[in-house]
Design goal:
The protein has 244 residues and is of the alpha/beta class. The chain contains seven helices and eleven strands.
């Protein structure tokens, strides 16, 4: 597998994360999370540069965050209001802040950055241990789609321009459900590589992880505007509740 630690993502992506990794759903995701959390104390796992946390804090929500990258947290602290958000540098699967919290969330497919099933289960267990009775855990991930793979590999163009090109090379291990990806950019005669391993999981498997941690599925939607989750949904927003 590609060598990747909790700090690697920030080392590679922090400088251009805000410019190149905007999913275009920030406004509606902030609105739904704010509505669901209400007045509960919130924790964001993989808080990053504050794409979600800063607008939530600006709306008056009490929020803390964990991230494995010092570079990403430095970007957060440098933004207006960022220094007021309590953060912890560490593996978000450990959920190293004691809490308790009424609402925890992990968005933008980041659950899959934990590249083993054991680590994903550990994350659920640690979240459950820090939730108040009745507290909720929200995740957002893509629904795996392997139709573009042939012989367990895929090459996909990301950008084709007059002076630059970007493409993604992926290798699929169906036994471990792991995607080993390299995003390659060629511009001005130079080539940069951005590795990104992911361990995907199907919604039913994620539900089982939650059950093992003592959490029940509360809601599932096919998007941030509460679209129905169907067989054709490409992503899901799922909310798990700790029994009262």
């Amino acid at each position: 597998m590609i060598e990747f630690t909790a700090a690697t993502f920030g080392e590679l992506y922090a400088d251009e994360y805000d410019d190149l990794h905007d999913p275009g759903t920030t406004e509606e995701s902030v609105a739904l999370i704010g509505e669901l959390a209400g007045s509960e104390t919130m924790l964001e796992l993989a808080i990053g540069t504050g794409r979600m946390a800063l607008p939530l804090a600006a709306k008056g929500h009490q929020i803390s965050g964990i991230d494995g990258s010092a570079e990403m947290l430095d970007k957060l602290k440098a933004k207006p209001g960022g220094s007021q958000i309590p953060t912890l540098l560490g593996d978000f699967a450990d959920v190293g802040l004691p809490g308790p919290f009424g609402f925890v969330f992990l968005v933008f497919n980041t659950l899959f950055n934990l590249t083993s099933q054991a680590d994903q289960i550990r994350c659920f267990e640690n979240v459950a241990a820090r939730l108040v009775p009745g507290g909720r855990f929200l995740i957002e991930t893509f629904v795996p789609d392997l139709t573009g793979f042939e012989n367990h590999q895929r090459v996909r163009p990301l950008h084709v321009g007059g002076h630059s090109v970007a493409f993604e090379i992926a290798r699929h291990d169906p036994v471990r459900q792991v995607l080993e990806m390299q995003r390659v950019r060629i511009k001005g005669g130079s080539t940069t590589l951005h590795p990104l391993p992911m361990r995907y999981a199907w919604p039913a498997e994620i539900d089982l992880m939650a059950q093992l941690a003592g959490l029940d599925l509360d809601s599932r939607w096919g998007g941030w505007q509460r679209e129905p989750f169907t067989a054709n949904s490409e992503m899901h927003v799922s909310v798990y509740r700790k029994p009262a």
